[in-house]
Amino acid sequence: MKPGATGIRRIINASYYSWLGLKAAWKSEAALRQEIVALIILLPLAFLMPLSPIEKALLAFSGLLVLLVELINSALEAVVDRIGPEQHPLSGKAKDIGSTAVALALIMCALVWGIILLPLLTAQLSS
């Protein structure tokens, strides 16, 4: 087993490293910044709407899923870039697959938001 911090010190260290990762991603990834700003705007609106707790959770989780996949994609791109600057088919493939994962997360999020909010909006417009 790898030596290192244990107990509460390990949790503190992990939290610190997670914060550093978020700061690095915020600094270098425009897409992540856009997605975070969108969530900062949309999530409070979603929680103010007359929705069930499950619907609110689905809206929140689908938005957070986008951030999760974006962070994983950013990490993947950083590792690929670390290997070297030259063009390689496998590097391109890895980056393309990561990008596709982000696109699918965005589509899933849009579907969840649409499925939950469209009936509410159409009911509001018809009344």
UniProtKB/TrEMBL annotation:
GO terms for molecular function: kinase activity. It is found in: Cell inner membrane. Keywords: ATP-binding, Cell inner membrane, Cell membrane, Kinase, Lipid biosynthesis, Lipid metabolism, Magnesium, Membrane, Metal-binding, Nucleotide-binding, Phospholipid biosynthesis, Phospholipid metabolism, Transferase, Transmembrane, Transmembrane helix. The lineage of its organism: Bacteria, Pseudomonadati, Pseudomonadota, Gammaproteobacteria, Oceanospirillales. It is a multi-pass membrane protein. It is an enzyme of class 2 (transferase). Its main location: membrane. Its EC number is 2.7.1.107. The chain crosses the membrane at residues 36-52, 58-80, 101-121. The keyword Calcium does not apply. Belongs to the bacterial diacylglycerol kinase family. The gene is dgkA. This is Diacylglycerol kinase. InterPro entries: DAGK, DAGK_prok, DAGK_sf. Pfam families: DAGK_prokar (PF01219). It comes from the Bacteria. It catalyses: a 1,2-diacyl-sn-glycerol + ATP = a 1,2-diacyl-sn-glycero-3-phosphate + ADP + H(+). Its cofactor is Mg(2+). Catalyzes the ATP-dependent phosphorylation of sn-l,2-diacylglycerol (DAG) to phosphatidic acid. Involved in the recycling of diacylglycerol produced as a by-product during membrane-derived oligosaccharide (MDO) biosynthesis.
